């Protein structure tokens, strides 16, 4: 069975659609985010469609900070409306005349006052006349769907690259765990031999109670036992492969799993009484940290 795909949280997509001399352009881009945060930026006259745009996007985008930019162009004169705020214009003109008088400036003709008044914000505005919502949506939807499709394709491509990289690092961790597992029993035997040699050096030919030595070795073995941690790490590695091959929304699952892997490796490091195991654990923790960084990018 073919593995399902995973997605990165970073991506970009652009879509366009033109109908009846009207053109919508939709651009989407996203970055990492703990939750699904979708921001829609669009012309004011389209504000009634914002909820539909967000809902449509949420059907396929489940995590990340996604910004959607929508622009509208028209060749139809029916879509353009020039508005004049007469009250605002009169207020600006009155204040300009008053300012001229209190500063003692020369009298300006009405044309100059008119020119300055027209430059102030919101006195004269050019807007697209608002059409019926359904007609606008029918033109916008194909552009949005095109942008979403391209956006998801890019996220899947990056996600598959991350998946491949994480699986490789998982194999490296598996090799390190196998080394630790092989080394662990030898540590106890080496400690037994070292203890016997030390006692011989101290006591010479004095016979030592074998039972006391065995008890000391047993305490050492129990204190440094890492069998459970190794077993759990092996189980976590199986889960890592399974989650990635299952695909879908894997980011949060893997984030939790990596925390557990890190906890087990820390416990092994704290229990280890052997240089080789400590060195292997350091390498193991390094690979787990690399996986953690990659997991932060997955949806």
Main sheet? 4 strands, mixed
Following the backbone from N to C, one meets helices and strands in this order, namely EEEHEEHHEHHHHH
Strand order of the largest sheet: 1-2-4-3
Helix-residue proportion: 55-70%
Quick take:
By secondary structure, this protein is α+β, with helices and mostly antiparallel strands. The protein is 61% helix and 15% strand. The protein folds into three domains: 92 residues, Ribosomal Protein S5, domain 2 (2-Layer Sandwich), CATH 3.30.230.10; 36 residues; 138 residues, no CATH class.
Description:
The structure is a single chain. With 299 residues, this protein is of the alpha+beta class. It has three domains: 92 residues, Ribosomal Protein S5, domain 2; 36 residues; 138 residues, no CATH class. The protein has eight helices and six strands; from the N terminus they run βββαββααβααααα. β3, α1 and β4 form a beta-alpha-beta unit. α4 runs antiparallel to α8 and α7 packs antiparallel against α8. The radius of gyration is 35 Å and the shape is elongated. The chain starts with 10 loop residues before the first strand and ends with a helix.
